[in-house]
C-alpha cells in the first residue's frame, strides 16, 4: 500500500493518476468533489458543506479530531457563509459529510405559538430569555437555547429552537401561566409633564376596549379578574391603575406616549397705526331787529351776541363781530389738525393647544341707565368697559413646525376728540381681528389691515344770498374735514421646544427692557429727562443646561429679579 510509504494518489482531469507525498497532498491541486461524484477509496478530495442550523465554528473542532490523523486531512470553516471545507481521503471525507448532515438536521429549529391565559406575554418573555442566557453561559452549544418573543396584541409567546428545547420551554410556561389569587395587579405611574386628572378619561376609554378584547379571547374562568380601575392622585400628579397584565402593559405604552414634554409657542403681535386729520370751519352769522342768519353747527348762537351773554369758554377758535342797535354780525373761524401714531407689540408664550390671553388696559365707566325716583332723586346705572390691548391665541403645532393659529386681537381706546353729548357717555375706538392662519415657526405674516382716506365738506348758507359771487361768503358757513388712517397688524411665531430656545427668547426680551432703562439713564446724565432715580436691571445671567434631568440648580445661582 502506498500509504505505508507516505504516498497518496490524486486523480487528474485527463484521467491519469498523480502520486505525491502525503504531507503535501492537501495542497497539490486536490479536486473538489460533490454528492454526484463523491470519490472513493484513498483518493484525496475536498468537499464543501453548507450548514443551515448549526454554527460551523462550534462543529469544526470536533471534525478535526475525527479527520485522518496521517496529516493529509484538513478542516477549515468560513463563518460569514457558515460553510465547512473538508479535505482528505474520499472514504474519510464522505463519512464526515454524512456526520455533518445528521448533526445539521438534528439542530433544525422550528417555531410555535403558545397563547397565555393569565400571565403577561412581555414580562414572561423577558424572564425566559434571561433564564436561557444564564443557562448558556460557559456552554459551547448556544444553538440549543430557545428564543422567546412576546406578541402583546394576542398576549402570546413565539418560541423557536430544537424540539427538546421547545418542550422544556413549554413546560416552564405552563407552570408560570397560572391564575393569580389577587384580582389584577396595581401599579403607580408618576407623570412628569401630563396632568394626571386629564389623562384618566383617555386611559379609561382605552382600557375598557382592551379589557373587552381580552375578555372575548380568554376563558370564562378568567373573567373574574377583568377589573379595571384608573384613579388620579392630584397631590403627586400620579396615576394608580389596577388592571390585568396585558391591559397594564398596553396602558403603560400609552402613558409613555402621552407623558411627554409639550413644545411651547411664542406669539408676538405688532399693531401699527398712523392717523392724520385736518379740519377748517369758517362762517358768518347775522342778526337784526326782525330776524337774522344763524348756523347751528358753529356751536355759538348769534343770539348770545345780541343778549351780551357770550362767554369765552363757549367757543373755540376765532370769534369776532359787532353789535349796533338791532343789528349785529359774528365771524367764527377754526382750523384743526391732529396726528396719531400707535405702535403696540403684545407678546405671549403658551403651550401647544393651550389658550392664552394678554390684556393691558383700564376699565372705563359707562352710563347704562338713569331713572328719577319719587323724591326727584336721580339713580344712575353704570357699567364698565375694558379698553386697551387684548390678545387671545390658541396655537396648534403641526408637522414641520407649521403652526395653526387661532387669534383674537383688539385695540380699543376712548375717543377724546368725539363731539357727541357727554351725557351719553364716551365714544370708543375699537380695532378687532378674529382670524385663523397657518404660519411657519420664525415667520412674520400680516393678519390684516386698513388704509382709509376720508374727506368731508359741509356747507350751510342762506338761499340765493349764499350763492352770490364773493358777497355770498358772508351768508354761508363752511366746514371741511380730511383724515387718513393706515392700520396694519402683523404676527410672528416661534416654536420653543427646549430650555435653550426658551432661554434665548427670554434673554431677548430681558435685554430689550434693560437697554431701554440704560438709555433713560444716559438721557438723565445729559439733562434730557428729569433727574430721577431710574433702576436698571442687571445683566441676564448665563444659563447652564448641562445638569442631568432631576438635578436642581445649585443654591449659588444668581436670580436677577432679587437684585
TrEMBL record:
Keywords recorded for this protein, A-Z: Cell outer membrane, Membrane, Protein transport, Signal, Transmembrane, Transmembrane beta strand, Transport
What Pfam families does the database record attribute to this sequence? Secretin, Secretin_N
Q: Show which residues constitute the signal peptide.
A: none
- Region of interest called Disordered, as start-end residue ranges on this chain: 538-563
Q: Give the GO biological process terms.
A: protein secretion by the type II secretion system
Q: Which organism is it from?
A: Enterobacter cloacae
* Major location (coarse): membrane
Q: Which PROSITE patterns match?
A: T2SP_D
- Highest taxon, organism lineage: Bacteria
**Keyword Protein transport assigned:** yes
Q: Tell me which residues make up the Type II/III secretion system secretin-like domain.
A: 333-496
Where is this protein localized, as stated in its record?
Cell outer membrane
What Gene Ontology cellular component terms go with this record? cell outer membrane; type II protein secretion system complex
Task: List, for all copies, the residue spans of the domain called NolW-like.
Answer: 46-109, 112-180, 186-264
Spell out the Polar residues composition-biased ranges: 554-563
Q: Which family does the record claim for this protein?
A: Belongs to the bacterial secretin family. GSP D subfamily.
Note the coiled coil stretches, chain numbering: none
List the protein's name: Type II secretion system secretin GspD
